[in-house]
Amino acid sequence: xxxxxxxxxxxxxxxxxxxxxxxxxxxxxxxxxxxxxxxxxxxxxxxxxxxxxxxxxxxxxxxxxxxxxxxxxxxxxxxxxxxxxxxxxxxxxxxxxxxxxxxxxxxxxxxxxxxxxxxxxxxx
Length: 124
What we know:
Distance between the termini: 41 Å
Radius of gyration: 13 Å
Largest sheet: 7 strands, mixed
């Protein structure tokens, strides 16, 4: 079965940068929609960045201009490059993938495969 494994979380100071990685073990389809979500304590997961098979992307307003979502298919990896981090970016971050959706999407219910999450803490 498809498995996603995140890494790269940790603690960083305000204004700093961090890069999260998400690696998949294999992919059974030419279609692939990938995304990053985050979850604050007691809240629902929110989509923040997504990239489709053709490379098209979409971002939540809260991270637009600060975060990017590159991928490296040859390395079976997705990344979340986070710059200009703020305390309100502190959350658990999850990568997600789907083999049916072929447009970038920030809608949680459209994703079937999920990683285990990695914590990001931004302190002042």
